[in-house]
Structures are given as C-alpha cells and as structure tokens.
TrEMBL record:
It comes from Bosea robiniae. This is Imidazolonepropionase. It comes from the Bacteria. CDD domains: Met_dep_hydrolase_A. Residues 55-404 form the Amidohydrolase-related domain.
C-alpha cells in the first residue's frame, strides 16, 4: 500500500536544498521516493494527502528530555515521590504530547529505575502511539550527585564500570554521565563530579558494548575532563564558575571542544520556557520575581555562550531538556528559535533537529531524514519554516512509520 504526500516544498533533513512541488512516496511504512513535479501516471489513483502551500519535513528529534516530568514546573525531586507506576504513565503521556507536535523521536537523558526503558518497550510492542523513545535508563552520578534519586549512583573505577554494565543489562541505548553537579540540592554545578579515571572507565565500558556516552557538563573543568575521557557528546556545556551560579566563558576550553569535534546539546529552551511562564503570569510573588531576574540573566548568558561556542566551531544538536522546569514536550521549535537567535540559520536548526540529531544519537539508519529506506516519520507544517521557524507549530500532518496520526 502506497501513500503520497504533496506540498509546496520538502526539506529532507540532510541539509540539501528544499525540493519544490514535491511528491513524497511512502510504502510499507518507509520512505520510497521523493519526486518533484506532477504525480507520475503509474501512481495516479494512489491515496494522496495534498497540502498546498505547506512544507514536508522529517519527524523532529528532541535529543534531550526527561520523560518522568510533566513540564509544568514540577521539580524532579517532587516527581520521583510518586510510584514508578505513575512515572511510567507520565512518561507515556509525554511521548503522546511530543508526537502530536511532530516530534517523532525523544531521547530520555535520565529517568527513575527502568521507567523510560519500559515505556520504550510498550511502544516497540505497538501498544499505542507515542514518539519513539531512545533511553539511557538512569543517569550515572556520584553518591549524592545530580539526580542521585533516580538510582544511578556509582563511585570508583570498578563501581562505575559495574554501573555502566547494569545500564546495558537494563537495555540502555546509550550511557549518560553526570560529569558535574547540577540543580540537585547539595551538588556542585561549578565543580567536576567524577575523577578523570572514573570518566575514562565509563566511556571505555560504554564503547566496549557499542554504546555512545554523553556527559552532563555545567563547568569548564568538567568539559575538559569529558573531552579527555573521549565522550561522544556533551549536554549543556556550561561555564558555571562558583557557588553563586555565575558563568565565566573560557575561550580556551571552547577551542578544545571545537577541536575535539564532540557535538553539544544546548538545552536553551529551559531558560526560554521559564521566561515564557513567569512573564506570562499576571503577578509574581517576591520569590518568583527574583527567580525571573536570575533566569533572565542566565538565559542571556547561555545564549551568549552558545553563540561563542558556535563561532569557535562547536556543533550543536537540538535538545530542550523537556520536562525540566517549565519546558514542554512540544518545545523543540522554541529551542530551534533560540538556536537561530544564537547564530544558526533556520535550515541549520532543522538539520540539527532531524538528520544530524539522528546521526549523533545513532539512529540515522532508522529515521531523521526523508531518505528512501528510512521510516516514514513525517511532519507537514502549514507554512515555510525557513522564513519563520514558528511555522513548525502549525502542524498539519504527523506520520510515524507510514501511519497517519494527526491530519
Ligand atoms: Zn537534562
């Protein structure tokens, strides 16, 4: 059974120039061909979805989310007080929210126990419709480290090796390591968490099992240590320099990072979502007002650092940290708008959320671009995202594996 999708243009996710007047041919759940011009005679009579003036894109990929969280301001410490059953349900609902927005793949960067892995399994079994899940299980962290309550605590070279093996046994697609502290009370975002030997051991163990490893880094030293350890990716790449949360950008570290070729997920949307939420409220308490001022500062600094890192030659994939604070599971367009503000072209942000994202998270043989043979994960939006990324919110059709979900 074939299906055709027609629109004004098609962006295939590889960075190639858009195809004008395209006909996307879908067959057996996969992309069969991308044609241009009128429907060929041999395909006449095929079921056709026609969207005049619209743009066809690959389904989007959010490379950094936390499925256990609702994205309504609930913090993870509170969310994990619920049973794992509630966390599984919350996670499943998150995949539905994303899918409706045309985000057909989510990569979870740390969930409690095996909750995200189990949601991935239910979706693989075909028990319902939700964005495809790529999961690390628990984020590996030092005892008492950032998000320790998810169950990923490990210490010492032998201990961290064992933890990597446990995550692989659980079914982890990749390994996530908290290389610095973070927002968790009692952790130090301005200091590295693991020793160099521990980081080296985790990357070595992940690679022995053909898994990629990514490191959460909020301070410059943790970035340097993660580069040294040979991580495949970094999350955030922040420059927090002391306990006040002040960030001091270090060009020498940026240069090292650029030279390493390691891609970074920027997660700019976290700040963007906090500003959207608090600025949208009719009134703020004193605490909220102070929180807003703090985030206005840090969002501006994050954007500045994003721009500097890009100019130094660091490459970025799109990832929102959805679930965290007020970041929603349909917020990938917000991340892309901020990436554009940080110096990327609209096309570059689209590639960073499709073809390049798929490559970085090791799913490019399944999805990420409208290439013959790949899953027919498709998003059709009402206007041209190249002239205005906000068009990505004007969802007309979502297809996953050739199945029409929203039309
Ligand atoms: Zn995160």
């Amino acid at each position: 059974m074939k299906t055709l999708i027609k629109a004004a243009q098609l962006i295939d996710g590889t960075g190639a120039a858009p195809v004008q007047d395209p006909v996307l041919v879908v067959s057996g759940g996969k992309v069969e061909a991308v044609l241009s011009g009128p429907v060929p005679a041999e395909l006449s009579g095929t079921e056709t979805h026609d969207y005049p003036g619209a743009t066809i894109l690959p389904g989007l990929i959010d490379t950094h989310v936390h499925l256990n969280l609702p994205g309504d301001g609930t913090i993870l410490e509170d969310a994990v007080r619920e049973t794992e059953g509630v966390l599984v349900a919350t996670s499943a609902l998150a995949t539905v929210k994303a899918l409706k927005a045309g985000i057909t793949t989510l990569r979870d960067l740390g969930a409690k126990g095996r909750t995200a892995i189990d949601v991935r399994r239910a979706l693989q079994l075909g028990h319902g419709e939700g964005a495809r899940v790529v999961a690390c299980g628990q984020a590996i962290t030092i005892t008492g480290g950032h998000v320790w309550y998810l169950g990923g605590e490990a210490d010492g070279v032998d201990g961290v090796r064992k933890k990597v093996r446990e995550m692989i046994k659980l079914g982890a697609d990749f390994i996530k390591v908290m290389a610095s502290g973070g927002g968790t009370v009692g952790t130090q975002s301005w200091n590295p968490a693991f020793s160099q030997e521990e980081l080296n051991a985790m990357v070595d163990e992940a690679h022995r099992f053909d898994r990629k490893a990514t490191a959460h880094c909020l301070c410059a030293r943790s970035i340097e240590m993660a580069i040294e350890a040979g991580f495949d990716q970094l999350e955030h790449a922040g420059f927090i320099s002391d306990r006040t949360g002040r960030q001091v950008y270090e060009p020498a570290v940026a240069e090292k990072l650029a030279k390493s070729g390691i891609p970074v997920t920027g997660t700019l949307a976290v700040g963007g979502a906090v500003l959207r939420e608090l600025r949208g409220r009719p009134s703020l308490t004193e605490t909220e007002a102070a929180f807003l001022v703090r985030w206005e500062k840090s969002a501006a600094q994050n954007l500045y650092q994003f721009r500097q890192l890009r100019e130094a030659g660091v490459s970025f994939v799109a990832g929102t940290d959805a679930g965290w604070r007020f970041t929603r599971f349909d917020d990938l367009p917000l991340e892309m708008e901020l990436m554009q503000e940080g110096g990327m072209t609209a096309m570059e942000t689209i590639v960073s959320a499709t073809g390049y994202a798929a490559k970085v998270i090791d799913i490019e043989t399944q999805t990420g671009s409208l290439t013959p043979g790949l899953a027919a994960d498709v998003l059709v939006v009402g206007a041209d995202p190249l002239s205005h990324l906000a068009a990505l919110r004007d969802v007309r059709l979502v297809m996953q594996g050739g199945k029409v979900l929203t039309a």
